[in-house]
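On clarity, I found the account of how folds are encoded harder to follow than it need be. For illustration, here is how one protein appears when written out as sequence plus structure tokens:

:::
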Amino acid sequence: VQLVESGGGLVQAGGSLNVSCVAFDDGSMVYDMGWYRQSPGKGREAVAISGWDGERIIYLDSVKGRFTISRDFTKKTVHLQMNSLKPEDTATYYCYADTSPSTWGQGIQVTVSA
């Protein structure tokens, strides 16, 4: 599996951004997928995870109500819509697939200015 991310960028606080991830996979994407993020000096944290069937979804407490994860199994993509962004959301965002071993995207920068 190979994950390729797109989107992200720079936005003012209160704005919105979307990051997307395409899974290049010959199979049926029967695995959890989601997004992690990492900012300088901090560890990588799970932001939003979607279960293999798209039904079970987990969000980081600080993004609940602001971020929405969605999967398109036909297009083999996972999206993260980020609204009401805050400066503390600034980080490199990584697409993740719970394959064996785990697969990670290359990372995409999201910067929120005050």
Observations:
- The longest strand covers residues 17-24.
